[in-house]
Amino acid sequence: MKKTVSNILTALVYLFLFAPIVVLLIFSFNDSKSLSVFSEFSFRWYRELLKDSNTLVAVRNTLILAASATAISTVMGTAAAWGIHRLRSRWYRRAINTVTDIPMTNPDIITGISLMLMFVFVGRLFGAQNSLNFWTMLIAHITFCLPYVILQVLPKLRQIDRSLPEAAMDLGCTPIRAFLKVELPEMLPGIVTGAIMAFTLSLDDFVISYFTSGTGFETLPIRIYSMTKKTVTPKMYALATIIFFVTLALLLISNFIGDEEDETVRKRKKIKTPIS
Questions:
Q1: Which among 24, 30, 88 is positioned nearest to 244, based on CA atoms?
Q2: How many CB atoms lie within 10 A of CB 46?
Q3: Alpha-carbon distance 234 to 28, whole Å?
Q4: CB burial class (10 A; 0-12, 13-18, 19+) of residue 171?
C-alpha cells in the first residue's frame, strides 16, 4: 500500500513538472496557431523559425557569448580551484569558499543591477559613450559561471592522493609535467562537468544579461522576452523545443561523465581493498 501511494505521488510530481514541457513540444509541431486544437503534424513553425533572421542572429550571439564565457571561466575556475586546494590555512580556505558561494546565493537581480552600476561607473570614468556592450555581458557571465566550475573541480582535487604528484616528481617529472600527467587527468571529469554547467547557465541567463547588455548585442533570452510583449507565435514553441533538447543532451553528457567517474572510483577501491 505504501509503495503504491509513493508511486502515485511520484507520478503526480513528475506530471506537474513536465506537463508544460510536453504541451509545448506537442504544439510546436501543430500546423495551426491554435493553443487548444491540434490540427495536424507539421514542421511549419520550424521552417518559419529558420526564416527569422533576427532570431538567428540572437542565437549566434548567445552561442558566441556562452562559448567565450565557458572557455574563460573554465580556465580561471580550474586555476582557482587548484589554488584553493593548495592553501594550507584552513581558516583562509573556508573564507575563500564562502566568498565563492556568494555569487550563487545572491539573487540574480541584485547581481545584475550591481554589475550594471559598476560598468556604467567605470565607463563614465574613462569617458566611454556606451558603457554596456558585449564585453560587459561577457564579464558578467564569467562572474556567475566561475563558482560553479570551482565547485565541480574542487571535489576531484580532494580525491587525488597528494603523494602521487610527489612520486611523479621523484621519478624525474617537473612540477608542471607532474600536474599535466597526474593531476589534470584526475581533474578532467570535474572540469568537463563544470564547463557544461557554465555553458548551460550562460545559454539561458536572462536577468543578468538584461541589465548588462548594450543596444548592439542581443541574446536569445532577451530576444524571446521582447517577443513576448507582442503576440507569441508558435515559432517560440519550436525554438523552446530545440533549446530543451540541447539542454537535455548536455545533461545526459554530464551524467554519463559522472557515472564513468563513479565506476572508476569503485574499481580503485576494489583494487585497494585487501583480499580476505
A1: 24
A2: 17
A3: 6
A4: exposed
Which residue from 77, 200, 98, 89 is spatially nearest to 150, judged by alpha carbons?
77
How far from 16 is each of 10, 23, 238, CA to CA, in Å?
10, 12, 21
**Residue-level pLDDT at 275:** 44
Name the one residue in this structure whose C-alpha cell is 541584485: 110
Mean pLDDT by 10 residues, the chain (276 residues): 83 88 85 76 85 87 93 93 84 85 86 91 82 90 92 86 78 80 84 89 90 85 80 79 84 72 58 49
SS3 30: strand
**What is the phi/psi pair of residue 223, to 5°?**
-60, -45
Q: Give the global pTM.
A: 0.80
Residue 178 burial (CB count, 10 A): 20
Within 13 A of 232's CA, how many CA atoms are on the CB side?
Answer: 16
Q: What pLDDT shows up at residue 140?
A: 93
The cell numbers describing 136, all together, are 560587459
Nearest CA to 209 out of 222, 224, 200 is that of: 222
Q: Strand, coil or helix: what is 41?
A: strand
For residue 272, what pLDDT is reported?
A: 54
**Cα dihedral 59/63/65/68 (nearest 10):** -170
Largest alpha-carbon pair distance within the chain? 75
- Grid coordinates in use for 97? 569558499
Per the CB < 8 A criterion, the answer to whether 182 and 165 are in contact is yes
The alpha-helical segments, DSSP class H, found in 87-107 are 90-105
